[in-house]
Each structure stands twice: as C-alpha cells, then as structure tokens.
Amino acid sequence: MILLDKESLHRLGAGESIAALCRDLRIDRAEFDRRWQRTIEARVPAIAGNVLAGVHASVEIQRDQWGIPHIYAKDDRDLYFGLGYAMAQDRLFQLDYLRRKGLGRLAEVLGKSGLESDTVARTVGLNRIAAAEWNRLPDEVQGVLKSFAAGVNLLIEQSKDNPPIE
Fold first, then answer.
1. What does the alpha-carbon distance between residue 65 and residue 138 come to, in Å, rounded to a whole number?
2. Which stretches of 20-86 are assigned E, i.e. beta strand?
3. pLDDT, tens digit, for every residue of 61-90?
4. Exposed/middle/buried for 66, CB within 10 Å: 0-12, 13-18, 19+?
5. Mean pLDDT of the chain
6. 46-158 falls under which CATH superfamily?
7. Who wins on pLDDT, 139 or 1?
8. CA distance 62 to 65
C-alpha cells in the first residue's frame, strides 16, 4: 500500500498543485487519488477502542456513524483524558495552532506572516495571564485539565510517525 509521504503532504499544505506533485512523482491523477485515499484512511481515528495508558480505569471511545466520539469513563479525570485523546485525533493541528498563538510562537511555523500575531500575544502577555489564571483554578479543575492534556499528549506520542490528518 503506497501512501503519500511527508514531503508530498508538506508540499500540498504549502499550496503546491496536485498536477505539479503528480508530475514530480511521475504518477497520474488516478494514482494520486488512490494514494490520497489510502493516506487519509491510515490517519482517520479508529471507530472504537479502549485507551489504557494514563487513566485510572478503562476509557472507551466509540464513534458514531458521523465520526462523533462518545466517551465512557468511570470518573471525571478519565473522561477528560479520553476527551483530550479524541480531540487530538480530530483537531491536533488546531490545538497546536492555538497553543502557539497564545504563546506568541506562530512565526515558528508560519514564518513572517505569524510575526504580527506573535507580537500582540507577547505584548499583551497572554502566556502570563494564562499562568496567573491557572494558579487561581481549584485543584479539581486543574486535575481534569491535566488529564485532558495527558490524553492529547498520549495521542501525540502514539502517532509521531503518522499524525492525524486535518
């Protein structure tokens, strides 16, 4: 099964045309479409499964016919762990984008086009504000948010070589 490689996906993401990519790969459009379909299928989250690492008890994530995750857990922390995991399956790029935006680090991935946003975020001090707000949260809220982050981080660790596609 031949998939599109990371370089090809980066080229498409940078706006290169499918026709140019096909020419360089020496494949026709039908072969590109087959590879694209297989690449997407390889990166789509599982319909159902148990997430075990990082939880107190079993967390079950079932996706319905529309791909919407339904998460079952015995306690709130495990539920938020499953939510973080499922959200990362569906929205990892968006989560990373918003994290970088708040930290004033968009230019690291966007280049010059991210500088203005970075300057605003750093001038306003969004990171400092978030840290101060974090310290004011009750322990229980901090706990579920840490569990959410642990779920996101587990998905990142598990999918390093084959990240979700958005």
1. 37
2. 48-51, 59-63, 69-72
3. 999 888 899 999 999 999 999 999 999 999
4. exposed
5. 88
6. Penicillin Amidohydrolase, domain 1 (1.10.439.10)
7. 139
8. 10
